[in-house]
Amino acid sequence: MRIKIKEQKSSFKCAIELSIADIIHSHGRAITLSELVLALDIQPTKNDCSIQAHALSLSSWFKGTELTLWGTVHGIKFWEFLNQNPGINQRFNEAMASDSEIMTSFVVKAECKQIFEGLGSLVDVGGGNGSFSRIISEAFPGIKCTVLDLPHVVANLPETDNLKYIADAFLFKLVFHGLGDEDGLKILKKRREAIASNGERGKVIIIDIVINAREEEHD
Ligand SMILES: C[S@@+](CC[C@H](N)C(=O)[O-])C[C@H]1O[C@@H](n2cnc3c(N)ncnc32)[C@H](O)[C@@H]1O
């Protein structure tokens, strides 16, 4: 309940900072979302530069192909930004970990418990610093949990017998020739994003059948 009130407060604060009430009032009649976005574009907020930048970019985001507003405003993916800002990265991961703590009571201890019972292994994709998997691994020692996340998120985290982290390399042995080009490309593009922030260590390793390849080529 407290979280809900906090969310409502920050939405309200954001609406005030964006002058949404003033825009609607001066519009003089009911306003559509696209009219509101356009109005935000020409009505910069006086006090807060970052809010102003977000407001100015809202319409570009709506019109453009960039997936997130963050990417439109900063020209960099949010995860890459976190990689470049260790302090914020840590706070973000801690915030996500708090969310896991909140969920524990009803996921592990109450009515959802049976979902995990009897499992032998689990991969927590985009599992952050593994807080959720750590809780699962402690509550269900029989489950081998593997957390897959970006290298800067899982670096130096303590592992246990049944909790491991992976991020450096992805091995696809005899997988791609069984997929269509479209699915194969989709997977490769995603993996490229995932390893991009891992410098020399990030790798996608593919072992597969190549037709008509010259003998000395090992790409
Ligand atoms: C919103 S957080 C959720 C974290 C965790 N699952 C939780 O609920 O607490 C999204 C997570 O996805 C991770 N992530 C984003 N892109 C990724 C990628 N390409 N490969 C692996 N993890 C990725 C981020 O680092 C982040 O930890």
From TrEMBL:
Ranges for domain O-methyltransferase C-terminal: 68-159
What keywords are assigned to this protein?
Methyltransferase, S-adenosyl-L-methionine, Transferase
Q: Which Gene3D superfamilies match?
A: Vaccinia Virus protein VP39
PROSITE patterns this protein is in?
A: SAM_OMT_II
Q: Name one GO molecular function term.
A: O-methyltransferase activity
User: Does the keyword Transferase belong to this entry?
Assistant: yes
Q: Does the keyword S-adenosyl-L-methionine apply?
A: yes
Q: Which GO terms describe its biological process?
A: methylation
Q: What is this protein called?
A: O-methyltransferase C-terminal domain-containing protein
Question: What is the source species?
Answer: Citrus unshiu
